[in-house]
Specification:
There is one protein chain. With 394 residues, this protein is an alpha+beta fold. The protein has 16 helices and six strands.
């Protein structure tokens, strides 16, 4: 089993697994620490583990600013202490008093850092949930920001030793600046894992060539810090071609031999991990160019109906069954096609015209949209404001 971990469907298909569980703490308390910037927050990461936290995450000023521009989570944002970068440190214990005491000790110990702007200990369960929602909304917050170019994955999961995180992030930001890229910096800082969505141009030949040059530099920066090209997600196609930069060709050759034992005909997830496709092969754009469709609604913010069909980034907040409004039909059926995410993807498939060929008369899309109540819960609750009611009306 350990040999197959990380093989990503290139050797076997996992049908079931036995897992080890750990007990969840009975009480939780959250400490939010505000810093001068996200780099200063990263510099202090190694001061936190001795306090015994059960969670250590980070968000930056880009995420907070984007949420404000989107008018999302205003109550949650008002709870954050002053700062331009934040560490969210969670403590767990058998009693709330013990968890709070640990959080207060760390807060007191952090007062000596010049870069610390403030710290707040949250004991109320609702406030804790509100603050965590900021971190959970990070992917959506950095997607489709009004007035800005689209941001994409592509280098969102690199990890370095936590003790070197601050220095790495400064160099990483300089690398982005050199290419004219911008991106948020957030993630699992306790493990040195950094997420970011970046305004790569993946729609023009020049933009894709620039992205490819960027990918020739970014791995060396991570490996130079003793890091990994990915911290939690898989390689898939995005990074598989870059693996020799981290493991060397001998080890990747051993991966290839191992795969051939399990999959001699090369049928299992080909083009991933070994004998990999290039990261710039099989991109959705520029190949996805559906014909312009005149619409009743302007859909200018989405980039027309074709842009609207690409708006969903797959967060899956529409797949909930007990809170909020979005999405009432999914709450009843539990079927992906009745979630906002499923409907958005079906619209994309309809416009692409490969698997769904009926166009605007598609029976598959009709079945998906038929149960939509046009309640507009998705427009307000979806992190990227997928407005399925308007798309259905169109």
């Amino acid at each position: 089993a350990r040999a197959l971990v990380g093989s990503e469907g290139t050797c076997v298909t996992v049908l079931e697994a036995t897992v080890r569980l750990i007990a969840a703490p009975k009480a939780r308390v959250l400490l939010a620490l505000g810093f001068a910037d996200i780099f200063a927050a990263a510099d202090t990461v190694m001061d936190v583990p001795a306090a015994g936290p059960i969670g250590l995450e980070a968000i930056d000023e880009v995420i907070v600013g984007n949420l404000r521009r989107k008018a999302k989570l205003s109550r949650a944002l008002s709870l954050l202490p002053d700062g331009e970068g934040w560490l969210l440190v969670e403590f767990g214990a058998d009693t709330a008093a013990d968890a709070e005491a640990a959080a207060q000790r760390l807060r007191a110990g952090m007062r000596g850092h010049r870069s610390v702007r403030g710290g707040t200990v949250f004991t109320d369960a609702d406030e804790i949930e509100q603050v965590w929602l900021i971190r959970e909304s990070a992917l959506g917050a950095t997607s489709f920001v009004p007035g800005e170019t689209a941001t994409w994955e592509g280098w969102e999961d690199a990890a370095v030793p936590p003790e070197r995180l601050g220095s790495y992030l400064r160099e990483f930001r300089r690398l982005l600046n050199r290419y004219g890229y911008r991106g948020s910096l957030y993630g699992h800082f306790g493990q040195g894992c950094v997420h970011t969505r970046t305004n790569f141009d993946l729609e023009t030949a020049d933009g894709i060539a620039t992205f490819r040059r960027y990918l020739d530099e970014a791995p060396d920066l991570v490996v130079g810090y003793g890091g990994s090209l990915w911290g939690e997600h898989g390689d898939g196609q995005a990074r598989a071609d870059l693996l020799p930069r981290m493991f060397g060709r001998t080890i990747v050759g051993a991966f290839r031999e191992f795969k051939q034992i399990w999959d001699p005909d090369g049928l299992m997830n080909p083009g991933k991990l070994v004998d990999a496709y290039s990261p710039t092969d099989n991109l959705r754009r520029p190949g996805y160019q559906p014909p312009a469709v005149p619409t009743f609604f302007p859909l200018a913010a989405e980039g027309g109906i074709a842009g609207a069909a690409l708006r969903c980034v797959g967060v899956g907040k529409c797949r909930k069954s007990s809170t909020g409004t979005m999405c009432p039909s999914y709450m009843v059926t539990g079927e992906e096609q009745h979630s906002t995410r499923g409907r958005a993807h079906l619209l994309f498939e309809m416009l692409r015209g490969e698997t769904i060929t009926g166009g605007w008369q598609s029976e598959e899309v009709k079945q998906s949209l038929d149960l939509c109540l046009a309640c507009k819960g998705c427009k307000s609750e979806c992190p990227v404001s997928v407005d399925m009611a308007s798309y259905k009306a169109e």
